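Pipeline run #58 for the internal structure catalog. This entry was flagged by the ingest filter as a single-chain record with no existing model, so it goes straight to prediction. Upstream metadata was stripped on purpose; only the residue string is passed forward. Reviewer on rotation: M.T. Logging verbosity set to normal.
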Amino acid sequence: MLNSPQFTRGKKVEAFLDEFFRFRGWHIVPTTAHEERALCLGDRHFSKGDLKLNIEYKSGIQTGATGNIFLETISVDTQGKQGWVYTCQADYIFYAVLLNHKILVFKPDKLRAVIEELKTKFREVPTSNNQNKGYNTHGVIVPLGYAMRYLTEQIIEV
């Protein structure tokens, strides 16, 4: 849903992250639609000197209210499409929880290695029916404190 409030908020978070990291010396270029959708390389190419990274942006818009992060396991339930926990091939996921003044840095391989265990510890739930037209996404609800302690590679304060 390109005009949904969630989409609009997500674009604002992307713009914030771009500016935040550009200010810290990163050159940032959006990935192409093919790189993002078919190759699952993330949303942005980051470079600084010789270092080049593919970064996936995620936004924990509701984390401030719920105290949880959402690790997407199913993207489109009517098509059985896997969520980004399984498909992301970026070097890192930057999960912005801006109301908590943090960016959680995850390695996709690490999340894939622990997602089945997380499903036994925490609830896997669908999104609300009105968030997407005709389908739901599903994900594991992980407490922010647990994610920060056990799942992140780094926590960036904003």
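catalog note: The domain at 5-157 is CATH 3.40.1350 (Trna Endonuclease; Chain: A, domain 1).
catalog note: The chain has six helices and ten strands.
status: ready for reviewer M.T.
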